[in-house]
Amino acid sequence: MQPNRIMLVLGVVIGCGTPSEPQLGDEFQLQVGESIVLDDLGTWVAFGGVSGDSRCASQAMCVWAGDAAVLVEVAPFPDALGADSKIDTLHTNLDPKSLSLGPAELVLVQLDPYPETPGSIRAEAYVATFTTRPAR
What we know:
This protein is mainly β. It is built from 1 helix and 8 strands, in the order αββββββββ.
């Protein structure tokens, strides 16, 4: 094999590795229906969808910024769908913006896309950005 081909194959193999799981303090994104395991917390987290989005559209004049309600499901891992699974709602502007994971909290950082016009976002288009932080 030629040296250039060896480097190309090696680069493809290295590039195909699984991404590292987020650690405490890292931001991570989930699309609707996606889930992730937070290994350092022994917790499985899933983004179930948006149950309401009243955020003021960028092309509208509003009295207040509005709020979006994000559904998250959490469970101890590896028993991700066992009896200890619970569904909670986090908000972009109202409380709660975080939920307890024992020694840490799951925090909703933002929800994308931001609406340009009222009712302009398809349910499956949402992407939520989360982080974790030590419990307060």
